[in-house]
Design a protein that fits this description.
CATH superfamily of the largest domain: MM3350-like
Structural class: alpha+beta
Radius of gyration: 26 Å
Strand order of the largest sheet: 5-4-3-6-7-1-2-8
CATH architecture of the largest domain: Roll
Order of helices and strands: HHHHHHEEHEEHHHEHEEEHHHEE
CATH topology of the largest domain: Structural Genomics Hypothetical 15.5 Kd Protein In mrcA-pckA Intergenic Region, Chain A
Largest sheet: 8 strands, mixed
Helix content: 40-55%
Shape: flat
CATH class of the largest domain: Alpha Beta
Number of helices: 14
């Protein structure tokens, strides 16, 4: 296609709405901004003829979009794919489908609609508080949308001193209590299987209530009430919908030490471009593993921080064995880089060879 035809094809069309990989979209963006073809080719280590092929293909897609955007069938597809994305479902388009191009365009438009534009990638600023701590142990974290409950668990583990989140293996059980939806999300496989058994055998459980001795009912009734709660696995459910609707999530870690956290949604932003969480603020050192709950933690701190305490050396040695650290923002943020579940948009970040020069949320 001639340059004039390409420019005309894109008139009135946001090139981001067209399907294509990130490189194709970036090439098109630069071309439409008037960057010389040779300069674009050098940037991507491609030939100028290849650049022309990419831009011409995207121009044909722009023309196709103009023909489709008012088509009712296309508009229905966009709505369907948008709902899928909101629910955390994958969009799968088969190569043998009739009107595959229409499905590809609708899926791309759905993603664009959901993100509110190329530069608007939704992220959450949350506040994590450890209940019963005094002074309050808390962390403020910004995290990209789209995290599973398992990833939220990883974040909490990494901003504290616990050792059960990625990159470490599972250590203790945990649970998110989604009270408003009568649902729990947990890595407790036994709880999941018990709920599945209850769903399949409700009549048996109802009969048990009728025949059980009265002195046992006070235990059985609460047990069955808990079994009625839907149990979901944390690796398959995303936090977005619940967090946005109810603003608060309860989290329990280690059913022995029994740590209770509250996660509160403070703000939704669209100017955070990193694919991993960042610790923004916080206060107080968090407890280590297996310290004996909140009261055991404060007894440990008393000995650990007092050089003259008779158990000081013993506590220092034990603390080292469980990887205990005083609160350190920089160290935590280095760890959080490993929780990478979205693409970092370096083209929107002020950096030099991936070294951050200036950013609203991250220092380095």
């Amino acid at each position: 296609m001639k340059k004039a035809d390409i420019i005309a094809a894109f008139a009135g069309v946001d090139h981001n709405i067209l399907w294509g990989n990130p490189k194709q979209k970036e090439v098109t963006k630069l071309y439409l901004e008037g960057v010389p073809t040779k300069e674009i080719a050098d940037k991507f280590s491609l030939s100028t003829s290849r650049i022309s092929q990419i831009v011409s293909r995207q121009a044909r897609r722009a023309l196709y979009y103009k023909n489709q955007k008012n088509d009712p069938e296309y508009q229905v597809l966009v709505e369907q794919y948008t709902k899928k994305l909101i629910n955390g479902e994958k969009i799968i388009i088969q190569s043998e489908w009739e009107n595959r191009s229409k499905h590809m365009l609708a899926a791309s438009a759905a993603r664009q609609t959901l993100n509110g534009g190329e530069s608007k990638v939704k992220s959450y600023i949350i506040r994590i508080e450890l209940e019963e701590s005094e002074p309050l142990i808390w962390r403020r974290v910004i995290m990209p949308a789209g995290a599973t409950f398992n990833r939220l668990h990883d974040i909490i583990q990494n901003v504290t001193n616990f050792q059960s989140g990625y990159p470490n293996g599972a250590y203790h059980l945990f649970e998110f209590d989604l009270t408003e939806e009568n649902k729990i999300v947990t890595n407790d496989e036994e709880a999941y299987l018990e709920h599945q058994h209850y769903k399949k055998n409700k009549a048996m459980y109802e009969e048990r209530l009728k025949t059980m001795p009265p002195e046992m009912l006070k235990f059985e009734k609460p047990h069955q009430e808990r079994l009625k709660k839907e149990v979901r696995k944390p690796t398959t459910l995303k936090v977005d919908e619940y967090l946005e609707q109810f603003k608060e999530i309860r989290y329990v870690y280690d059913f022995g030490d029994d740590w209770h956290f509250t996660i509160k949604l403070e703000q939704i932003v669209d100017d955070y471009y990193f694919g991993f969480p960042t610790l923004l603020d916080g206060a107080e050192t968090a407890p280590p593993e297996d310290v004996g709950g909140i009261h055991g933690f404060y007894k440990f701190l008393e000995a650990y921080r007092d050089n003259k305490h008779p158990e000081h050396e013993e506590m220092k040695a034990w603390a080292e064995s469980v990887y205990f650290r005083e609160y350190d923002t920089d160290w935590i943020n280095e760890r959080l880089k490993g929780l990478n579940y979205k693409k970092t948009e370096w083209d929107k970040i002020n950096h030099e060879r991936y070294r951050i020069i200036e950013d609203k949320y991250r220092k380095k």
